[in-house]
Records
---
Amino acid sequence: MSSKNLTLTDNTTGKSVELPLLEGTLGNSTIDVKGIPGELGYFTHDPSFGTTASCESEITFIDGDKGVLLHRGYPIEQLAENSNYIETAYLLIHGELPNAEEFATFSNIIRRHTMINESLKKFFDGFRHDAHPMSMMMGVVGSLAAFYHDGLNMNDEEHLMVSAHRLISKLPTIAAACYKHSIGEPIVYPRNDLDYCENLLYMMFSVPCEDYVVSPIAAKALNLLFILHADHEQNASTSTVRLVGSTGANPFACISAGIAALWGPAHGGANEGVLTMLDEIGSVENIPKFLEKAKDKNDPFKLMGFGHRVYKNFDPRATIIRKVCYEVLEETGTQDPMFELAMKLEEIALKDEYFVERKLYPNVDFYSGVIYKALGIPVSMFTVMFALARTSGWVSHWLEMMADPNGRIGRPRQLYKGSPKRDYVSLDER
Ligand code: CMC
């Protein structure tokens, strides 16, 4: 029993249970509720997991009230300023920043696993040209399980690590292939002399008939966006990866499930949603009308890119990305009225009582879409970009979960509100 505990008493029966208080390094302590069903016969009710810690983790810490985001203890602001995506991925996976040799070895591994099996390329032919890239990502990443399954020993740490490397390396190749399929251009093979973001841009935008020079502005901006999106502790997609992984499923199937969870507009799909929304709003005069829609509880319209389950003052990633957004637009010479519309919307919403009262601030996705657009990345690929970046976080959590000697299958309970037991009635008597 932990030295600190709480006593929970059932006021109907007078029975009590002592619940240990679990203390982390930072953040709220957590009540261990495992004893409640046995002692009192109750489950705990926490729909959408607003207050439930589903696991212990050493990877990422968020303080939503203070706008703090730490990866393995390092503030996101410092990583964004000084690190690169591959180094951040190493940090997430291994827990420490790499020394020069470790970095060289890791980045070499990631560079050299970029090719996909030739027969996987044929999978793309099965998709219609207008299939959403996220649907292709889910399918093709899941299909990697067909190539890496039989020889995979889920009890061998080395095998798990190789799977993690394959995922980080191959996802850009698959993402670019999804894009090429959607525009009817040949799939471009990766180039291992390029770094992670350069290679992605090269595979997306080069064609076999002419030379292509990767824009350093685009590669630098992507690198920063990927650092900002690399991990975000137990969000919907990461929890999905952990839940699927807890069954012992193939890692490529787990990441495919994470991609599915990310796609929704309340999560990673919001960056695409921001652009669709700005298109719909059309011009500054229409902002008040759309703000009224967002406030109307009978209207499903929400201000995309606003609000966050955890951040209630500001999203530290949004502060960094907002600045970069201006820099990219200046460096690329983009004169986009959509950007002015976005900035006006941000200004008006931040003064609006409804948004102020509910602490709804622009999140990272409000700005990332604008940057992607300025870099020439098509809107339907925005969430794919998020998925690529988040893969390092997903695999880190999956590896952490797989290494937990006390790990059990994830299996939530429910509060049943359906019909009580009743007898079957035959069709002619209904
Ligand atoms: N527009 C209008 N109203 C909103 C919005 C919004 N974007 N977000 C929240 N609200 C309202 C919500 O209706 C509720 O109102 P009331 O108290 O009157 O019922 C109140 O604000 C509090 O919301 P909440 O319950 O704290 O929100 P949540 O934690 O359930 O959901 C969210 C968080 C991000 C899903 C939600 O804010 C949302 O749907 N935002 C738009 C989509 C978006 O930008 N998602 C990207 C999230 S950041 C990237 C990532 O990590 O996934």
---
Amino acid sequence: ADLFEAPDYYHLDDLLSDEHKLVRSACREWVKREVSPVIEDFAQRAEFPEKLLGGLAEIGAFGPYIPEAYGGAGLDQISYGLIMQEIERGDSGIRSTASVQSSLVMYPIWKYGTEAQKKKYLPGLAEGKLMGCFGLTEPDHGSNPGGMTTTFRDMGDHLLLNGAKMWISNAPFADLAIVWAKNEEGRVYGLIAERGMEGFTTPETHNKWSLRASATGELIFDNVKVPKENLLPEKSGLGAPLGCLDSARYGIAWGAIGAAMDCYDTALRYARERIQFGKPIAATQLQQKKLAEMITEITKAQLLTWRLGVLRNEDRATSAQISMAKRNNVEMALRIAREARQVLGAMGITGEYSIMRHMMNLESVITYEGTHDIHLLITGADITGFGAFK
Ligand code: TGC
Ligand code: FAD
């Protein structure tokens, strides 16, 4: 009873292997023990709980699917998804840190880096001893990253990096940043910028009402000399950062289910115990409608996401399929958070319960990694053959 209830209305556990269930329960126990008791306090103070980094590394949240030879956990895509689900049951901001480290920092080094870069960075990143961030978004280029104005020039013995990135998760404390910038020909490449390089600063973004337990900041590059060996050489073009986003968006699709489950579980328990007009509010048709719709939507999202995981394990999932799941699941979670908040009445607005925090967090999740609109346009382009972005 101390563990979270994990709604499994369609016996989806039958589709999971013993390893999947083992990975999930290790994460679930860790979140219950280490995250839930402290997270509200960190969120209220708008502080990132750095003390959780060691535990995140231990549960395999940093590079779940990166091969063990590079320090990763060597797990499949379903295990990766389940880890994200359990962490986000605790808090979307903590899941963000894990998403960024795994899919936006380790993934590009693993896929686009040299053997020397992989050996140098991946083991430390997997252990959480090195933390990374991912700089794609700029002040004037969010949904349209192809318009980026951050550039690097080949100076012979080094690369000269100039520009600015904004809204970057983990930036204030990261040891390194994967920065996307254009060369003299306008071709996009990833570079590894390291804290301490002259001209590289990471001012923190304050006053967020969402993702308060996650540190967000800018990356400013003022004539930063980056060694040539820090360029990720194996893939260039906008497809390189977008390939990383596929992996992160897939994880977010699972993560959103975790947030939704926590809201549903909290609302269900509360509704069964809260007495008004002489009976539990769970015995009223209006509250049952809310709860019944929540479990229906969670179940649909679980099926969609599990199937997507199978496709990813077989290397068959398309970017558009990933967009559909990210878009569907985050909106589903946000709607459930709003309804669940109302089930708790006034109690729902307090930090005694997790729902309002999830709701505020999900306002970022529905915007980052491609907005709700952009994912709809990706589906629209995929099914009609007409891109409607421009
Ligand atoms: P478009 O012309 O469509 O594509 C340019 C090139 O990229 C290829 N491509 C992809 N490759 C791999 N994976 C994908 N998902 C891809 N989508 C497109 C494409 O084939 C093309 O290749 P090539 O070789 O022909 O050049 O590009 P576009 O400029 O029209 O833009 C398309 C659009 C709008 C879909 C895209 O730019 C987009 O997804 N925008 C949203 C931006 C975004 O998601 N930003 C996220 C920043 S990171 C973040 O938010 C982290 S949050 C922290 C956390 O995760 O917790
Ligand atoms: P805009 O692109 O300006 O969009 C504004 C509105 O216009 C949106 O509603 C959008 O859907 C709509 N819109 C845009 N284009 C179109 C169109 N063609 N047709 C119709 N409507 C359109 N980025 C990183 O690179 N790394 C990170 O680690 C990172 N972390 C983040 C953390 C947080 C807490 C937040 C909030 C954001 C983070 N981001 C990060 C940035 C995020 O990816 C962007 O905010 C997102 O891609 C949207 O860009 P924008 O905010 O500039 O909005």
